[in-house]
Amino acid sequence: MSNAALEEKNKKIRERMLNLSEVVIGPFPLDSPWLRPVRMNFIQDGKPKAWDLMRAHESVSIIIFNISRKKLVFVRQFRPAAYFACLPEKEAVIDLEKYPPTLGLTIELCAGIVDKDKPLVEIAQDELREECGYEAPVSAFQKIITYRFVSSSATKQTLFYVEVTDEMNIHPGGGAEHEGELIEIIEMSIDEVKNYVNSEEVSSPPCFLNGVAWFLNNKKDRYA
Fold it and tell me: Strand 59-66 relative to strand 154-164: parallel, antiparallel, unpaired?
């Protein structure tokens, strides 16, 4: 896809992505299929303690390097959690002019939750196709590391690396339409990536920074 075509496609997706209305903050539903909050009670060093936490899906993420144009490929999405973090705590009905939806936009690695009974590399392959439009064989994926992201939950995340070419860009990308996904495909040169991660505030999760750092440190032969 040419730069002009990608920009036009992203523009249309962005319009739909930011078309928010009637944003209301409510109580957490106990039947959520995604997050299952619990309270763990325990005794540590003779003292009773309690910790609120939740169970969430494991995930895969992919560092994508387009060797045709020497660019890294990322995705941009509206993330409700990122938006929520910018909102005042005690307001239930959100003023969208005061708190525009752009506050919830993040740049991330192509990624997805592990919700299928398939090898992790095949889930990564599916996400590459659905989100970014590239078709790559399983053999092209290099597993980098599996680690735990620890916050209110401790989920296992597996990082992959894959190299793609323009010829492999044969699918629409932009996310799974039937799941309501709206995803922009973002390409950055090495200099653009370095400038972004060195800026004062990065609207990206830790796994993005981890993946970029790994690439810059281990793939100099591919971009230098």
Answer: parallel
**Max Cα–Cα distance, the chain, nearest Å:** 64
Provide the pLDDT for residue 31: 86
Is it the case that residue 114 has pLDDT exceeding 80?
Answer: yes
Place of tokens 């996310």: 175
Helix ranges, the chain (H): 3-17, 80-84, 120-127, 190-197, 206-218, 220-223
Q: Which residue has the tokens 């325990």?
A: 42
Mean pLDDT rounded to a whole number for the chain: 93
Judge whether residue 152 has pLDDT over 80. Answer: no
Domain CATH number, residue 135? 3.90.79.10
3-state secondary structure of 61: strand
157 and 214 Cβ atoms separated by less than 8 Å = no
Tally of domains in the chain: 1
Cα gap 92→90, rounded to integer Å = 6
Rounded Cα distance, 92 and 200, in Å: 30
Residues 6+ apart with CB under 8 A from 11: none
Domain limits for position 170:
3-222
What token pair was written down for 100? 């525009």
pLDDT higher than 90, residue 5: no
How many H-runs (helices) and E-runs (strands) does the chain carry? 6, 9
Residue listed under structure tokens 């944003």? 23
What is the reported pTM?
0.92
The residue with tokens 């392959």 is 125
Give the three-class secondary structure for 56: coil
Is the pLDDT confidence value at 151 over 90?
A: no
